[in-house]
């Protein structure tokens, strides 16, 4: 830290001009920053999206900040973010990987890759997830089965308070397991639970304040213990995955693929047979694609469900209205996706949970693919861009009560469900979430089935007012640790 202080002081005295004033007529405007540190001292590292939203009040919907030496263009508000991601989807549609992830990603997989490899992996995964049921009945059946297992776990707490994170993570992760490996795992299987717990821990660590600083100055903070922990966990997951791939390869039947991994191996064999060399179907892409599906597909859906249950415990009259709709439309039978159209209130509650939960506040970092002009500003190729989804989901021009849990945002005066264009938790454009239809199916089935079986209340001794809705995390926003009681209704 002495070294950092010296570098900062020295460079500060050497240049006391701002970065942003270098080319004021062309670059998006932004706050004055210090050399090397940029605007670091002005940013709340626990809630960077919050600082960005404040800055947009002064600098408009397209502005520049410096995270250390790294220049970032931030886009805010529904109109600007939508326009950028949809009308300029090629220009704004590359991915900027984080330094902490770069060393093991090496540009493979879907989440952090670009170019032909990204295009091929994204297309292959989407087609195969659909083949293995995404958005269809087979997938619905898997979700229903998993949901029944989760209900059993909740029942075993006998109405006593418990932290909802782990059981929900296991259930949601198992849906991805079924589609990727072709089978689910028992919650008592330590191979499975350790992989889910490790992945979860890695996501938390990746969003930590120290890793954000590492991402700005990777050359200076290689020694960080958090970095070491991330690398070790990643390596363990890698070994575990390769042993699973090995088992699947031994029992592979090209006529009957069990999941995405089988389909990948068959595709590779076919390419090899037809003599196609240097294709994208290699081990690194297999491992990274599988890892991406776990990372992107577990934590997100699981966190949204936890927000949903917490909000129900906090607002019991809304919980009552959901349960009343369930009683009227479903009764005691199993809920199905096709019931959604008859349950506008519940659908509105789920949408409003996603809007207020705002779990991926700055999407994933984008990068520009060419030099171009946007809103009269010149933006260079390879500039990092944050499409601030939080500013879309809370845009005061779009939402009547942006900071309140208000399901009526999605209802007309007669109680019918209304779609809202500014509902963009899955982002938009060519990088739009690949698992949106799976996530929407999971959220509906899990949320409704749980509310059919249980009423959620705060732990004894905690009042509803004390249930804290302040999110924790930076990369993804989670409810702060809490316990709920699942009181059986059946
Ligand atoms: C990307 C949200 C569930 C797979 C993303 C992005 C967001 C997002 C905001 C970044 C888009 C961008 O960069 O502009 C969510 C939310 C979910 C969810 C809110 C649940 C409530 C899932 C599921 C899967 C999944 C279940 C797995 C099947 C992916 C992948 C990407 C992605 C692979 C990377 C796309 C790319 O870079 O081309 N998601 N997601 N997500 N999501 Fe999701």
Radius of gyration: 23 Å
Bound molecules: protoporphyrin IX containing FE
Provide the spatial order of strands within the biggest beta sheet. 1-2-7-4-3
Q: Ends: how far apart?
A: 59 Å
Number of helices, where a helix is a run of at least 4 consecutive DSSP H or I residues: 16
Textual characterization of the structure:
The structure is a single chain. This protein is an alpha+beta fold and 490 residues long. It has 16 helices and eleven strands. The protein has helices at 2-14, 48-59, 78-87, 99-105, 115-131, 137-155, 165-180, 190-206, 209-216, 225-250, 260-273, 283-314, 316-329, 344-357, 389-393, 436-453; strands at 62-67, 70-75, 94-95, 366-367, 372-374, 377-379, 384-387, 454-458, 471-472, 478-479, 484-488. Strands 1-2-7-4-3 form a five-stranded mixed beta sheet. Helix 12 (283-314) packs across helix 13 (316-329). It is globular. It binds protoporphyrin IX containing FE (HEM). Protoporphyrin IX containing FE (HEM) binds at residues 95, 110-111, 122, 292-293, 296-297, 300-301, 304, 359-360, 363-364, 425-427, 431, 433-435, 438-439.
């Amino acid at each position: 830290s002495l070294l950092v202080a010296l570098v900062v002081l020295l460079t500060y005295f050497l240049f006391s001009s701002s970065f942003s004033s270098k080319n004021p007529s062309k670059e998006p405007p932004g706050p004055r920053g210090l050399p090397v540190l940029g605007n670091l001292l002005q940013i709340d590292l626990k809630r960077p999206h919050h600082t960005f939203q404040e800055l947009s009040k002064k600098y408009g919907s397209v502005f520049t900040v410096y995270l250390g030496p790294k220049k970032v263009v931030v886009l805010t508000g529904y109109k600007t973010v939508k326009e950028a991601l949809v009308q300029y989807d090629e220009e704004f549609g590359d991915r900027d990987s984080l330094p902490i992830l770069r060393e093991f990603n090496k540009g493979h997989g879907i989440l952090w890759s670009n170019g032909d490899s990204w295009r091929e992996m994204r297309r292959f995964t989407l087609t195969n997830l659909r083949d293995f049921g995404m958005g269809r009945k087979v997938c619905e059946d898997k979700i229903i089965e998993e949901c029944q297992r989760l209900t059993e776990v909740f029942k075993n707490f006998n109405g006593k308070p418990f932290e909802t994170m782990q059981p929900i993570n296991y259930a949601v992760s198992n849906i991805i397991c079924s589609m990727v490996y072709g089978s689910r795992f028992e919650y008592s299987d330590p191979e499975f639970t350790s992989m889910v717990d490790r992945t979860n821990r890695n996501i938390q660590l990746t969003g930590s304040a120290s890793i954000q600083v590492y991402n700005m100055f990777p050359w200076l903070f290689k020694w960080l213990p958090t970095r070491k922990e991330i690398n070790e966990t990643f390596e363990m997951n890698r070994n575990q995955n390769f042993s699973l791939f090995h088992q699947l390869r031994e029992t592979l039947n090209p006529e009957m693929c069990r999941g995405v991994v089988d389909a990948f191996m068959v595709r590779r064999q076919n390419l090899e047979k037809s003599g196609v060399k240097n294709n994208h179907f290699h081990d690194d892409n297999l491992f990274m694609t599988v890892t991406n599906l776990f990372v992107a597909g577990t934590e997100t859906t699981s966190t949204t469900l936890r927000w949903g249950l917490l909000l129900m415990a906090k607002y019991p009259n809304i919980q009552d209205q959901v349960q009343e709709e369930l009683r009227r439309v479903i009764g005691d039978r199993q809920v199905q996706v096709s019931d959604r159209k008859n349950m506008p209130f519940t659908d509105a509650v789920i949408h409003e949970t996603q809007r207020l939960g705002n779990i991926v506040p700055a999407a994933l970092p984008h990068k520009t693919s060419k030099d171009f002009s946007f809103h009269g500003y010149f933006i260079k190729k390879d500039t990092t861009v944050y499409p601030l989804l939080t500013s879309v989901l809370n845009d005061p021009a779009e939402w009547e009560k942006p900071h309140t849990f208000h399901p009526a945002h999605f209802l007309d005066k007669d109680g019918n469900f209304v779609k809202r264009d500014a509902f963009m938790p899955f982002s938009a454009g060519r990088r739009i979430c690949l698992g949106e239809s799976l996530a929407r199916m999971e959220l509906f089935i899990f949320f409704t089935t749980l509310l059919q079986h249980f009423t959620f209340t705060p732990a004894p001794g905690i009042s509803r007012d004390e249930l804290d809705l302040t999110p924790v995390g930076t990369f993804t926003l989670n409810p702060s640790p809490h316990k709920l009681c699942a009181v059986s209704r059946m």
